[in-house]
User: Fold this.
Amino acid sequence: MRLLVVSNRLPVVLEQTDQGWHTRPGSGGLVTALAPVLSKWDGTWVGWPGVPHADDLDLDRTLAGAVMEQGYKLAPVPLTADEQRGFYEGFSNQIIWPLFHDLQSLCNFEPEYWTSYVTVNAKFADVVVRTARSGDFVWVHDYHLMGLAARLRQHLPLNRLGFFLHIPFPPPGIFCKLPWRGEVLEDLLRYDLVGFQTPRDLANFIDCVRTLLPGARKRRGPRGTVRLSHRDRTCVLGAFPIGIDFQEFADVAASAAVAERVKELRADMQGQRVVLGVDRLDYTKGIPYRLRAFQRALRRFPDLHRNVTLLQVVVPSRESVQEYQDLKAQIEQIVSQVNGEFTQPGWVPIHHVFRSVSREELVAYYRLADVALVTPLKDGMNLVAKEYCACQCDGDGVLILSEFAGSAVQLGRAAVVVNPYDLDRVAEAVHYAVSLTPQQRRPAMRKLRRNVRDHDVHRWVGAFLAAAEPADRPRADSDERASPAGRPRPREVTGVS
Ligand code: ADQ
Assistant:
């Protein structure tokens, strides 16, 4: 059996120079976790290369050449600029993304977006069909590609098909607003295994099936999963909270280069306590609310003045979409308002970094920070919370975490949990966090780090692949191969106690 991973983007960054195309390996937890599994399983990653193109022989050659470096193959799905607009910017990011994050007022239910989504999903499926051999496991990732299974079933009847949703799944009251709700649910049930981030997302999905597909039957599945039978098919559903590559973050955090950088940053901060926010530019991350909460903290607690600085790092994202341009302007406006209100010579209350920073620099920020302020309005998981904990190799630090982040299920008991909409409580949480003594901070951070370490991304891959095996087949060694932590259970939702 081989493994085929399918995601919207290929895990490479393409650059065009006078000499032609060049690739750099992509970064991120998913790539790190899946790369060793893919190379061991003679795997292929199917996805859009990230640039609009039709028939570019040089690009195809470059991608084929990248195989040697990655240790697995890449299969590009060429999309036109129009398809990219309708499917990615339209259906994925103006309908599913806001709806699944409970922000239905931001949805643009344009019928043509659905048409484009169906066309592009068929294109992805065709590339998978051309690439897969009978018996390969096909693992599809995320909300852009929920509709692949129907076509794959027709052409690959003997292949097992898995799907993992990285973002939340909404309750019926919200999901039912989707004009194509029945189609999306039925499409998902055509996979053999559908994974969600948390038990809440899984429960929401089951509630939606109950509401919209009353004929579906539910039974307990193996290893904490649920079996849903609808029409002639049975689909296994489970909660598989994604982790990070703990060891990699911990190693970089403990490196001499990062220690040196942290020393420089501390000198620049002139002894101030640092509260850190790190986010992709996105309205779900709650950045304006966070800035307002910090402003309230400064208004209510003068002892924070000259003692605490908020370092807010934002990585640009989806910049062609109007909402994201508006959000950027809104953030800049609040930052300048707060700084105008409070800055004194020698102290600027908010430092705003608007760019992607290198892994090493990001880890240095994590280590520098006395407090991480992770307050998304809604988040499938939120890896920043986990990365911050992994980087506290001196065992110190405080995590303030939104109750609406998927990671709160795992980390909530040792974090300071807040409602990100409640500005006064978030302000109080900031004041409380910076006032804690090391004796109060350390035991909680120890629990957080243990939890993030024990439920890392390798264990997540192992758990998903183990649950994807047919119930009547003895379990192969997929989990051992993918999980240094040993045989995982598929439903890792333990608290931090
Ligand atoms: P995202 O919404 O992208 O992911 P998140 O989980 O927070 O959200 O991951 C963001 C990543 O970007 C982190 O790995 C972080 O290190 C990196 N990053 C952020 N700011 C950066 C900067 N300025 N420079 C460089 N890197 C930066 C989706 C879902 C989440 C889910 C993940 C994984 O929305 O809920 O946790 O997938 O399943």
User: Anything to note?
Assistant: Residues 111-131 form the longest helix (21 residues). The radius of gyration is 23 Å. Confidence is low (pLDDT under 50) at residues 474-497.
